[in-house]
Amino acid sequence: MIDLLPLFRTLWVVWFFVLFLGMLWLVLRPSRKSHYEAQADIPLRDDPPARALRGDRPARALRGDAHASR
Questions:
Q1: Which residues neighbour 8 within 8 Å (Cβ) at sequence distance 6 or greater?
Q2: What SS3 state is found at 7?
Q3: Does residue 62 sit within a domain?
Q4: What DSSP string runs through 15-61?
Q5: Average pLDDT per 10 consecutive residues for the chain, totaling 70 residues
Q6: Residue 68: inside a domain, yes or no?
Q7: C-alpha distance from residue 50 to each of 27, 56, 58, 59, 68 (Å)
Q8: 55 Cβ neighbours under 8 A, 6+ residues apart
Q9: Number of structural domains, the chain?
């Protein structure tokens, strides 16, 4: 088993290098460029107004309060 230790270390380095190259290929391939550009724009987008998020109804109407029609 001790004789195999250098072989395992070498194979581990080779396996890690192949895995790293595979990850680079997945991330840097040209077909994913538009996806990554869209993801990069997320922090720059404007937030919609809070009223639009609720569907333009007051909070009381959303809860179904009896006094919402006053």
A1: none
A2: helix
A3: no
A4: HHHHHHHHHHHHHH-GGGHHHHHHHHTGGGSPPPPHHHHTTS--HHH
A5: 87 97 94 91 81 60 55
A6: no
A7: 36, 9, 11, 11, 19
A8: 62
A9: 1
Q: Which domain holds residue 26?
A: 1-43
Q: Which residue has the tokens 């029609």?
A: 69
Q: Is residue 52 part of a domain?
A: no
Q: How far apart are CA 13 and CA 21, in angstroms?
A: 12
Whether residue 20 lies inside any domain: the answer is yes
* CA distance readout (Å), 1 to 5, 15, 50, 55, 70: 7, 20, 66, 69, 84
**CB hemisphere CA count around 45 (13 angstroms):** 9
Dihedral sign for Cα 51, 56, 58, 62, please.
Answer: negative
